[in-house]
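Dear colleagues,

For the upcoming journal club I promised to circulate an example of a predicted protein-ligand complex. I picked one with zinc ion because it came up in last month's discussion. The inputs are reproduced below in full, followed by the predicted structure.
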Amino acid sequence: VPSPKADAAALRTFVPTLQGEIEPEQLGLTLAHEHLFILSAEFQHNYPGLWDREHGVDLAVSQLEDAYDRGVRTMVDMTVLGQGRDIGLVAEVGARTRVRLVIATGVYSLDGIPMFARFRGPGCLIDEADPLTELMLADVEHGVAGSTVRAGVVKFACEGDTPWASAERMAAAVAAVHVRTGVPVVVHSDPFAANGVELVKILQRHGVAPSRIAIAHVGDSGDLDYLRGLADTGCLLGFDRFGMVTFASDAQRLTLLATLVRDGLLDQLLVSQDHASHIDYLTVEQRARIYPEWSYTHMLDRVLPELLNMDDMPTSILDDLLVANPRRFLTPART
Ligand SMILES: [Zn+2]
C-alpha cells in the first residue's frame, strides 16, 4: 500500500508536462522561458476577428517542430493568468508537436492585485486566506482548468512601478505554493529598475531558498554590479530575451553572460528567448518589423554559436545552459 509519504516523494521526483509526467533526465534540451500564445483574453473573446486561432495553432506547431529539429526537447510555457493562459489551446498544440511543454501557474499583473482578488485576502476588506494561493495550488497539485495537466512552475510579475504591497502579497502566495509542492518560482522582474535582489529577499522571508528562484529578464540589464549582486543571493538569472532587441542588444546580453560565466556563475544562468508564437500586443506586421529574428531557434541559430567561439568558455557550456541548469531548476524540490 503506497504511503502518503511515497506519494509526496513521487510529486518531487517527476516533472509534469502537458504530454505526461517525466523523469527530470528526460527533459533534454530545454527552453526555460518562452510562451505559446500571449493573448488579451477579454479582447480576444469580444473581438474574435483579431486572431485566426486555427492558423495560430498550425503556426505554433510548425515553429515548435523547427525547434525540435534543432534539438529542443522541452519548452516551458511561462504564460499565466493575465497573459491569456488557455490550456485547451496549449493542448491542441501539444498533441501535434514532439516538443514537451511544461505549463506554468501564477499571475501576471504589473499594476497590482487583479480585481478578482483585490477585495479578499490577507489585510483586505474581506480579510481571509489568499484565494490566489488556493487556485495556484490546485493547478500544481491537481491540474489546470479541469485537465489532468499539472503546472510545473509558479510565477508572478513585478516591475519598478508595481505597488510594492501587491508584490509582497503575490510573493507570499507564490511562496506558499512552492513550500507545499516544491515547484520552482519564476519572477518577471524589471531589469531597468534592478528589483531582483528585493524580490529574492521577500521570497526568502516566506521560505523559498534562492536556488529555487529564477529572476527573469535580468539579462536585459547592462549593469554588471547589479547582476553580480543578484547572483550573490544564490538565485538563477534569466538571460531570457535573446532576439528582443527593443530592451537590449543580443551583443550586450552575450558579453555580460560570458562575464558571469568567467566569474564562475555558470550554474546560475538560464537562457531563453521569451518568444511567443503569437502575442496580441503587436500586429503580426509590427512584430515582424520590430523583432525580425525573434523565434524559438534564434539563440541556437545565431547567439550560442558566438558564445562557443569565445575560446575561454567551458566546452560543456551549451549542455550546462540548456540541459543541466533547467533540469536542476525544474525538478520539484521543497526548501
Ligand atoms: Zn515571459
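Two points we might discuss: The chain is about 40% helix and 15% strand. The chain has a mean pLDDT of 96.

See you all on Thursday,
B. R.
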